[in-house]
Amino acid sequence: MAATNTSKIVLPVEVAQGILRKAQDNSTIQALSPSTPALFKNVENAVFTKEPEAQFVGEGGKKSSMDPDFKYVKGGIHKAQVTVRMSDEVRWADEDDQLSIIDAITDASAAALGRALDYGIYHAVDPSTGEAAPSMTALTSGATSVTATADPSKDLDSLVESVNEAYNVSGIALSKTWANQLRKIRVAATGQRLYPEIPLDLKVGNLDGIAAATSNTVNGALAKAATNVLAILGDFSLIKWGIVRDLGLEPIEYGDPDGLGDLKNLGHIAYRTEVVYSWAVLDPKGFAVLKAASA
Q: How many structural domains are present in the chain?
């Protein structure tokens, strides 16, 4: 939607040694699931539905064969972009070393693209609008759902129990809401925290022996329709993702790249950062999602 205010964007008069930003959420998937090389094409991933088993063979015994069964899961290509429009005077300011605003734009855009990975895979939501993203299926829609109770420790046990009979448990992604709830739990006899190593950010920590990372992307804070998601636990190796193209930061000096008016006419410059992701969730049933009870 085009903005109605096309007045000149004004730079701050003075910024002391950089720009202070609030802590940025980023991708728990990047923290818990390693990326794999990706090509610019839709790739089908073969997944065992029936794995072969070994046979013990006695001396002179016959060897039999087993026929494994497969299903195929197609990975999709998804482009994400961030465009930031500013006064063209920002270039002079950076040249004079008065502002580090270009670096701040680069860092903030990279963080936004990281968040987009979680929003796309977990929730199938476009973070810029909070609306459903086209041609995406949310991992949370196919995962096993667990309803939260008044006892977070029991909820953690329920999450693990709903997954680990058939799948490995390699990690848990925490919303900040649930991380805060778990952090408050203390041992009655000593006052010590029950989960002292729980992470409050993306630095991978530990929750009861499970690798954990925390971000507001888990509960989809930018989604217009509340997801009620508190945590996602499972085998994060089932998320196959990679970067097909990392297009970096592109200065745009001409035209109308975002529908807000001609850059030269308004004395603006735009900075655009783009990345092309490829991802597939091989089996959403390898995950359990803790959700707050609906009101």
A: 1
C-alpha span between 150 and 141 (Å, rounded): 24
Please report whether residue 103 resides in a domain. Answer: yes
Report which of 232, 124, 223 is spatially closest to residue 178, judged by C-alpha positions. 232
**In CATH, what number is assigned to the domain containing residue 170?**
3.90.1690
State the pLDDT confidence band at 20, using cuts at 50, 70 and 90: very low
Give the pLDDT confidence of 134-159 residue by residue, as tens digits.
889 999 999 999 999 999 999 999 99
pLDDT in tens, 41-70: 566 655 545 566 776 787 878 877 777 665
Q: What contacts 176, CB < 8 A, 6 or more positions away? A: 200, 214, 215, 216, 219
Q: Which among 182, 157, 148, 158 has a CA at the least distance from the CA of 294? A: 148
Torsion of CA 279, 281, 282, 286, to 10 degrees: 150
Predicted TM-score of the model (pTM): 0.81
**Which of 32, 34, 26 is CA-nearest to residue 113?**
26
